Amino acid sequence: MAITVEELETLLKEGFPNARVTITDLAGDGNHYAAEVIDESFRGLNRVQQQRAVYAALKGKMDGSHGELHALALTTKAPD
Asked: For the chain, which residues make up each domain, given as ranges?
């Protein structure tokens, strides 16, 4: 089962309401996306901590072989 850009954006905006979120569908199949999430809450966190926060916001959509989202190229950072 695939996930739409809108569903992915909604999950990320729920987890990071003030974030700037940019999503790109990499393959047109609803399973391979790139996302850039820029949020003040990332300030002071290392990259692994930032990405773990994003994965938590996805509420299991990437979990295991039954996840709705197969691949997510993720860029995270605090605003400049």
From this structure: 5-77
Whole-number Å distance between alpha carbons of 42 and 77: 6
Helix boundaries (H) for the chain: 5-15, 47-57
CB atoms under 10 Å from CB of 65, counted, come to 5
SS3 for 34?
A: strand
Question: HSE on the CB side for 68, CA within 13 Å?
Answer: 14
Structurally, what CATH architecture does the domain formed by 5-77 represent?
2-Layer Sandwich (3.30)
Higher pLDDT, 68 or 40: 40
Q: Which residues pair with 23 in a beta bridge?
A: 35
pTM of the shown model:
0.88
The pLDDT tens digits of the residues spanning 23-63 come to 999 988 878 899 999 999 999 999 999 999 999 999 888 87
Token digits for 22?
């940019």
